[in-house]
Amino acid sequence: MEWTQSHVVYNMISLVWKGVQLERRYGHLLFGALVAELLAAAHLITVALAALLAANIPGYRYLYRDQCAVGFSAVLFGLKVVLNHDSPGFSQVMGVTLPTKYLCWAELVLASYLNPSASFLGHLAGILAGLLHVRCVEPALRGLAAGMLPRSG
């Protein structure tokens, strides 16, 4: 199986694994909204990071135009952050044990090492979009929902 096919197969398996768990946690509609949010946020972050690099690193100015960075892998990295952000457990990557909530960072390095032509920037943006969700969006939504509940008393 060539790289493109195996990449698509891996992404689909990854989506099923993460999607089943997160859809059970959030429900159908909120899971769909989460995927849409991560898709938009990850790609906006990718464009912003590429522009920032191009503006500040002369050699990078032309490189970002020649790389394909749009894809669903960024969303999968974001889903991994959302799924594991409060995990108290540990996981192993290539024999290295680390807290599960940091697994996405090890996989970012591993994915870039195994396939140097993969979009490091896109995957990084997916992680940043996931962090944005768990640290900003989700707490804000919880606060909004709490404010809508009737007060007893």
UniProtKB/TrEMBL annotation:
It is a multi-pass membrane protein. This is Peptidase S54 rhomboid domain-containing protein. Keywords: Hydrolase, Membrane, Protease, Transmembrane, Transmembrane helix. The keyword Iron does not apply. One of its GO terms (cellular component) is membrane. GO terms for molecular function: serine-type endopeptidase activity. It is found in: Membrane. InterPro entries: Peptidase_S54_rhomboid_dom, Rhomboid-like_sf. Belongs to the peptidase S54 family. One of its GO terms (biological process) is proteolysis. Residues 7-133 form the Peptidase S54 rhomboid domain. It comes from Gonium pectorale (Green alga).
